């Protein structure tokens, strides 16, 4: 991502979004369909243009279909594309959709349905392309909505229809407006939260009769234990980053070129290949101009086992808080653990490793070993980093705030399964009480 945006042609075809008949394979399925849902109605608009060009450098083949939906910044319309090698991007547009709210789960579901029905395949890679904030569903647009609703509530338009929603939304607007979920749409002031993502993915799995092979997240901070568990019933693998991503995001041309060359690769192989190509694309960590990057592929079939191990750790840690020396060890491990630009995210394995090194009591140490084994042996298929400030990354992060637990966190499936939120609350109460 990161180049200047190309001019968008007004040429369009099927407004209903149906794939043209000539593009639909009738004599059997292709090996792979890559579906890229691009939420570009924000500051990433120019980067989306560049990524479509990267996809076109490879283009669809007799065993691979590459399709995308790109919602652009204000002044442009959203379009669907069946990407072919060569030519201009607008020449591959197969549908013009007008204004689209990419934060509405229905629009993501519609895109998936269109792609699966129009371009059937043995395997599917769905990529969510946008900003990201891991599990955190705090409303990034709350501040803007608060100001707009104040003007609406106090202005000349006072229809009763608005009264209850105004009061409700004004209350919601007190959330931290610096955080975000995924698929932000600046025009619609909307985004996709993790509950909505789980429902969309469940619908996609029902549509194809099995789990989606790979859910790729070309977005920041999405390789979290909480996110993986949220979609483990509807996706086989995830690919995402613990750290924020550079503006250029995934190198679609190198990933797709490898897939086009070997379309028989398995979902596990492709998920690992995306990690490999992503890390290879960015400069060496020895280059002083290089930024820090991470990327990981995770096997979601192992997500329940990881959650079980985290539940045991949460229970052991909560009990250990009764002992002053153990409380101090937890505090020190949290302070030293590998962290990311999402300030409340830490690497799960590094945290456990520091607890063991710091002399955690046997029950905690044993639980830490189980978590580390679950991550490194089973859950993380491939992972890596560049940049010395990321050297303690191991592929999956977890939420560990230092100020307070978000009121949204207990609603996650991961929290309900593991009790990690209860441990966090107990730990932060001890910190606030200065009992260390």
Give an overview of the whole structure.
This protein is α/β, with parallel strands linked by helices. It has helices spanning 45-56, 105-118, 142-154, 160-172, 194-208, 225-230, 252-261, 267-281, 303-320, 324-336, 348-357, 362-379, 413-418, 420-432, and strands at 30-39, 64-71, 78-82, 93-98, 121-129, 182-185, 190-192, 212-218, 235-240, 293-299, 345-347, 380-386, 397-399. It folds into 3 domains: 21-136 and 187-281, Rossmann fold; 147-173, no CATH class; 303-432, no CATH class. Strands 4-3-2-1-5-8-9-10-12 form a 9-stranded mixed sheet, sandwiched between helices. Helix 7 (252-261) packs antiparallel against helix 8 and helix 11 (348-357) packs antiparallel against helix 12 (362-379). Mean pLDDT is 83; it is low at 1-26 and 143-180.
Task: Give a short overview.
The protein is α/β, with parallel strands linked by helices.
Q: Give Rg in angstroms.
A: 22 Å
Number of helices: 14
Strand percent estimate:
15-25%
Helix content: 40-55%
List keywords for this structure.
single chain; 436 residues; alpha/beta; Rossmann fold; 3 domains; two-stranded antiparallel sheet; 14 helices; 13 strands; disordered N terminus
Q: Could you give the topology of this structure?
A:
Layout: E1 30-39, H1 45-56, E2 64-71, E3 78-82, E4 93-98, H2 105-118, E5 121-129, H3 142-154, H4 160-172, E6 182-185, E7 190-192, H5 194-208, E8 212-218, H6 225-230, E9 235-240, H7 252-261, H8 267-281, E10 293-299, H9 303-320, H10 324-336, E11 345-347, H11 348-357, H12 362-379, E12 380-386, E13 397-399, H13 413-418, H14 420-432
Parallel strand pairs: 1-2, 1-5, 5-8, 8-9
Antiparallel strand pairs: 2-3, 3-4, 6-7, 9-10, 10-12, 11-13
Helix pairs in contact: 2-5, 3-4, 7-8, 9-12, 9-14, 10-11, 11-12
């Amino acid at each position: 991502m990161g180049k200047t945006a190309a001019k968008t042609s007004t040429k369009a075809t099927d407004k209903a979004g149906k794939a043209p008949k000539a593009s639909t394979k009738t004599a059997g399925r292709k090996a792979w369909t890559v579906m890229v849902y691009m939420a570009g109605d924000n500051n990433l608009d120019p980067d989306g243009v560049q990524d479509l060009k990267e996809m076109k450098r490879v283009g669809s083949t007799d065993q691979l279909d590459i399709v995308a939906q790109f919602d652009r910044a204000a002044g442009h319309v959203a379009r669907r594309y069946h990407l072919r090698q060569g030519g201009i991007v607008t020449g591959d547009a197969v549908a013009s959709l007008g204004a689209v709210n990419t934060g509405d789960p229905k629009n993501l579901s519609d895109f998936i349905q269109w792609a699966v029905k129009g371009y059937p395949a043995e395997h599917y890679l769905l990529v969510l392309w946008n900003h990201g904030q891991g599990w955190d569903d705090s409303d990034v647009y709350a501040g803007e909505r608060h100001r707009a609703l104040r003007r609406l509530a106090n202005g000349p338009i006072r229809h009763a229809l608005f009264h209850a929603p105004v009061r409700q939304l004004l209350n919601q607007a007190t959330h931290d407006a610096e955080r975000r979920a995924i698929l932000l749409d600046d025009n619609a002031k909307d985004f996709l939260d993790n509950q909505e993502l789980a429902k969309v993915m469940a619908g996609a799995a029902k549509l194809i009769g099995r789990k989606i092979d790979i859910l790729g997240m070309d977005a920041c901070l999405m390789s979290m234990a909480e996110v993986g568990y949220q979609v483990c019933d509807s996706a086989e693998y995830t690919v995402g980053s613990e750290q924020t991503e550079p503006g250029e995001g995934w190198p679609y041309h190198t990933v797709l070129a490898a897939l086009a060359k070997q379309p028989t690769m398995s979902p596990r192989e492709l998920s690992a290949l995306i990690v490999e190509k992503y890390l290879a694309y960015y400069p060496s960590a020895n280059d002083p101009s290089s930024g820090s990057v991470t990327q990981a592929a995770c096997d979601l079939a192992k997500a329940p086992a990881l959650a079980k191990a985290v539940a045991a750790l949460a229970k052991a840690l909560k009990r250990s808080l009764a002992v002053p020396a153990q409380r101090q060890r937890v505090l020190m491990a949290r302070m030293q653990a590998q962290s990311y630009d999402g300030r409340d995210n830490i690497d799960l394995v590094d945290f456990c490793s520091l607890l063991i090194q710091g002399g955690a009591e046997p029950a905690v140490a044993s639980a830490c070993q189980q978590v580390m084994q679950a991550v490194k042996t089973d859950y993380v298929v491939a992972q890596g980093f560049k940049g010395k400030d990321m050297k303690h990354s191991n592929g999956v992060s977890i939420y560990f705030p230092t100020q307070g637990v978000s009121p949204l966190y207990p609603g996650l499936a991961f929290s309900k399964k593991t009790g990690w939120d209860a441990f966090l609350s107990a730990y932060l109460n001890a910190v606030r009480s200065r009992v260390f």
